[in-house]
TrEMBL record:
Signal peptide region: none
Name by which UniProt lists this protein: Phage antirepressor Ant
AntA/AntB antirepressor domain segment(s): 17-86
Antirepressor protein C-terminal domain residues: 133-235
Any matching Pfam family: AntA
GO MF term set: DNA binding
Amino acid sequence: MNNLIEIQVNENQEQTISGRELHMFLGVETPYKKWFDRMCEYGFEEKHDYLVTDIFVPNSNGGRQNQVDHIVKLDMAKELCMLTRNEKGKQARTYFIEVERDWNSPEKVMARALLIANKQIDTLKLENTVQRQVISEFKPIKEYVDTILSSEDTVTITQIAADYGLSAKALNKILNEQGLIRKVGGQWVLYSNHMQKGYTKSETIDVTRSDGSIKVVMNTKWTQKGRLKIHELLTLLGLKANMDKTAA
């Protein structure tokens, strides 16, 4: 089959041609832009029948200049040929019909189907790889969270800090900066917006002073829910629990 006008295939597996190439082949004397605009008055729609694109062509100064072109679907191209009403139009239309006939042959249809299937397989493989990576990245976090949720005991801030290789003082400073706790009368307490969420359990204990007198102090421990809240805050800051580091 003679290649009168170059045929392209878009991402939707549709055959297209250049509007300017068709205009040149048909020998239309009207300037391309005026001709194409007039043809569109017959009801052709952008994005349905054609797309607007840019091409670069040589100019008189030896450089290159921008020109507007159109990516025209074959059905529209056949109608444009009919509207031209000359021998070139008839020749081009016959050519497009032959191209379509070949394109829709069982062999070509099967080849395109296999191509699409292979692309879908490649896409699924990529998605599967990404999912495996995400799962592997979150596995250490899940292991530590599972450890938290499996326990019903309360823990001290010192115990939680040790999970991250921190001191209790350093962890309290971080939690204060993150707006979780504040110091009142020498004691760390939750900010009011975090109270009533079950993060801590407090009790009073008697402490004997050096002079033998008794001082009542509050002893605050963190619940597993509170421990998980701390874990979420530290994770956002890029701090990993020792268990996560080992698993990674």
